[in-house]
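Form 7-S
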Amino acid sequence: MRSRSTHGAVGFNASGARFFANDTFHVVVTWGGGRAAAHMRQAQPTIHFSHEMKWAHNPEDVDPNALLDEVLQHAQLAVRPEAADHLAVQELRNQHEPLDWYPPTAMPARDRARYGLMGDAA
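Output:
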C-alpha cells in the first residue's frame, strides 16, 4: 500500500511537534497557527502518509496520541478516494502501541527540515 493524502498544504509553520520512530515506522505530529498535521512513513510495505487539518486547540496542552487520532479521523472523514488507506494507516498505528513520543530536537536534522521544524518548534 502506498498512501499519499495531501489535504491542505502540510507545510505550515508549526509551533510544536512530537515524533515516534522505531526500526520500521516513523510518525510525526505537528501543530500551530490553527493547523495540525500527521506524517507517517514505513519502509515495508511502503507507506508515505501526510494529512493536515484546521485545529483550534490550546497549543500549550497537546496530547500527541489524541492529536494523531484526531488527524487520522479527519483524514478518514474527508471522503477522498484514499479513505481506505487512512484506515490501513490507523491499523498500522495501533500495531505500534504504545507510542513513546519525543521532542523534535531528538529527530535527525533531515527529518526536522522535511517537516519545517528547524526553528522554534525544534
